[in-house]
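Check these lines:
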Amino acid sequence: MESQAAGDGKLPVRPTGNTVLAGLATFTLDGRGRVASWSATAARLFGHSARAVVGRDVCDVLITGAGQRELVSHALAEVAAGRMWSGTLPVAFADGGGQVTIRCEPLAGSGTGTLVIAQHAAPRPGPGLLSEAATRIGSTLDLTQTAREVVDVAVPGFADSCAIYVPERLLAADEFASHRAGHAVVVRRLAARLADQSSAVTDGLLRPGEVLVFSEDTPWFQAMASGVPVVFEHLDGETIERITSRPGGPQVAAGYTSFLAVPLVARGAVVGCASFGRTRASSPFGPGAAALAVELASRAAVCIDNARLYNRERRTALALQRSLLPGRPEVPAGLQVAHRYVPVGASVVGGDWHDLVPLPGGRAALIVGDAMGHGPEAAAVMVQLRTAAHTLADLELPPEQVLHRLDRMAAGLAAAPFATCVYTVIDPSDGSCVIAQAGHLPPVLVLPGGATQVLDLPPGLPLGLDAGTFQASRISLPPGATLALYTDGLVESRARAFDDGMSALRETLGSALAQPGAELGTACETVTEKLREHGEDDITLVLVRIRQ
């Protein structure tokens, strides 16, 4: 690479302002970030001769500010790891300052050097920015990710800084904020970006998720209240105090001279505010920039509001789904019980349910059921059957009568669902267990030492067929034995035959419970984790043992 060695004075031949330099400037750095070679194009772009810069730390030559130095250190670390890094930085030219787009690449074959390709930043884009916004913003329905996409498009393409704010009441309670005189608005910062700072420095100064209060005399409040952009030159005292109290804040705050607050308007309502800033190296915001910002904010607002609405609906769905999950059961003193439920896919609950109902005399009713299907429809059927089963258990009805009444109830539901169920009543006083089934897979009895036995019981027909009668069987639980109740998701899948699934269940249960006094909770987790690999349905496993 050629080096400009003639003279050591300033070379004031670089275009100034926001003019685009047609050529690229290149130079190289050694492994410690010192200038190793300096081309003629670099001398023309930055105004420094090779004699004046070779051997010096690149930060001492071009970079000002602790945050920018940290960003350079990050870039050099990326190159040292064999990766390329690119970004836009404000640099110190010989005759002033300006924005430069920089690309850093590992030097071929050296492993310790960096090739730097630099070009003066182009003027602020117009329609191209909006095209980029349409492509990049709204790739997901995640609210925070969408806000990050907005700031990534805005910086450095439109501004040197950008932050996105949404009213807290809109996020928490779906209520639009009041922007009347005498009021303030509480907002949450979703994302922010500073062109000349690393993400760590930016997050330290403009913290994601930070809740702030915009009073009526702030430009951000005025923008949201009026629905029009507000251009201003100085930050308010409270904002200055907050930023300058944080590491690196005074230097960053001092570099910005022009600001723009733009309301985020979607579907006729103000859903937030975008704040932009430019440093001394960039031209101040004017009417043209404000008009472009409104276009950018309009596109961003719709995507942010879509993500907000999706987030609201998801929170509602999760709250409803979690309300369907069983609470912590009251386990009688004579029993040990462990249970685990694993929903299929992204659902929180599906058609599986289990319940434990304490009965007089230290007995307990243990119920496991499976409503056909997945998702909210199966969950709606499940919660009705689970509630009915719990109520019938409280009446101390025999297991076969409980299933008979559940069958009649299921047959009368509008959705005409089918469900399977196994209902047991365990009496620790005599070690007995009475079991009735409605189309459900039979329980597995795990004996001390790990031997297993699939109980041979009358299977019965699934609930919802109005079958009429069910049969109950009484068995004895040997001391130390464990009874396993489960749903078909644990043993059935398209990738594995049913018999193979049952063999895997017995083998896994036997291994997990082979040792005397094996902990049921650990065994429950071990079995479900191993067998869920082939699962295509919700999984429920309940283990019960009479205390010795």
In short: Confidence is low (pLDDT under 50) at residues 1-22.
